[in-house]
Amino acid sequence: MTGAGPKKTPLYDEHVRLGAKMIPFGDWIMPVQYSGIIDEHLAVRKNVGVFDISHMGQLVARGPRAGVWLNEMLTNNIDKLEIGTGQYTFLLNERGGIIDDLIVYRTAPETFLLVVNASRTDEDFAWLQKHLGDNAELENRSADFGGLAIQGPRMIELLQAMVGKEAELPARNQIRDFDSAGIKLTIARTGYTGEDGVEVFFAAKDAAKVWNEVLAKGKELGIRPCGLGARDTLRLEMCYPLNGSDLSPERNPIEAGLGFFVDLTKPNFTGRDVLLKTKENGSPEKLVPFKMNDKGPPPRPHYAVFENDERIGEVTSGTQSPSLNWGVGMAYIDAPHAKIGAKIDIEIRGQKFPATIEKKPLYKKS
């Protein structure tokens, strides 16, 4: 998994064998689609889909003061985590900008698993290592572990087929260890699609076996292997942000509308002063979801946003929504204009197309 070329996950050969279309994604080469983005997307909404998330980073923090130290590095409150639970949180720079968004799980009294974005793993590890507290240590176990996201309304049936009907599955945001045919699986009830789902972690050497078992057990449930294309359309319908597009070191969580995952009652964490000022004074721009008013070309990142011929922002994510069959996206917009129901225009190839700022999420289950 090292060398000058793009990195490959332990499932690379399986993806190629299944005829996946492979593309560069950051430092990685990953499947963008198998049967087609719409087919994969709808399988997740209606049945179940499986994604390779082995490219995601896995860092482990442990030690007598690991929790105290992480609470100074991350925005959410580690003290609220019981053993076997996780929370969404941010790693910030001193300017309050987002280095990464991640999930942290407390797996033992003073042991924490951090699941971080693939393109940010080395940067996160270096930043955390540089600010390492006393009586805490950090390990980057990414290369030794793989991961799958199993998402969709039939996920429970699939998991029961793998770990037994009697097994007590984790509740939302819980994490638990299981045995499947002698393979240790760590299963977290989390996901990036808006459907019920889990993220499953295992030793890299077991990756192909777990992947093929999931596909075999899921066959009668209508499972599809899914690529980055469906992952993007699913998350965008839910208004889940993408690091590098909607989130960046120049943006803070409050601007991104994610203040819920920032605990400003904590006395001391990196970037707190900046976030406090943003909360008190308001942010000049806000990240908002929108939907196109008419059928037409889908919005894409970096398209300009206008209101009455005045440029008021820029699209950060955009696509054609397979569930809604409509163009949707997210954009940073000048705060005075960022109101639900406001009419805006998206400039697509020199022509303006009308859109409306919507309430999150864009896709609502019927």
Give the helices and strands, then pairings.
Layout: H1 12-17, E1 21-25, E2 28-33, H2 37-46, E3 49-52, E4 57-62, H3 66-73, E5 85-92, E6 98-108, E7 111-116, H4 121-130, E8 137-140, E9 145-151, H5 155-163, E10 175-180, E11 183-188, E12 197-203, H6 207-218, E13 224-226, H7 228-237, H8 272-281, E14 285-292, E15 304-307, E16 310-321, E17 326-334, E18 343-348, E19 351-357
Notes on the structure:
With 366 residues, the protein is α+β, with helices and mostly antiparallel strands. Helix content is 20%, strand content 34%. The protein contains 8 helices and 19 strands. It has a 6-stranded mixed beta sheet. A 6-stranded antiparallel barrel has the order 14-17-16-15-18-19. Strands 5-6-7-4-8 form a 5-stranded antiparallel beta sheet, covered by helices on one side. A hairpin with a 2-residue loop joins strand 1 (21-25) and strand 2 (28-33). Helix 2 (37-46) packs across helix 7 (228-237) and helix 5 (155-163) packs across helix 6 (207-218). The longest helix is centred in the middle third of the chain and has 12 residues, at 207-218. The radius of gyration is 21 Å and the shape is globular. The model has no long low-confidence stretch (mean pLDDT 97).
Multimer state: single chain
Q: Helical stretch count? A: 8
Spatial strand sequence of the major β-sheet: 10-11-12-9-3-13
The general outline is globular
First-to-last CA distance = 43 Å
Tell me the β content: 25-35%
Overall pLDDT level: 97
Structural class: alpha+beta
Q: Are there runs of 5+ residues with pLDDT below 50, and where? A: none
Q: What is the N-to-C succession of helices and strands?
A: HEEHEEHEEEHEEHEEEHEHHEEEEEE
Tally of extended strands? 19
Largest sheet: 6 strands, mixed
Helix content range: 10-25%
Rg over alpha carbons: 21 Å
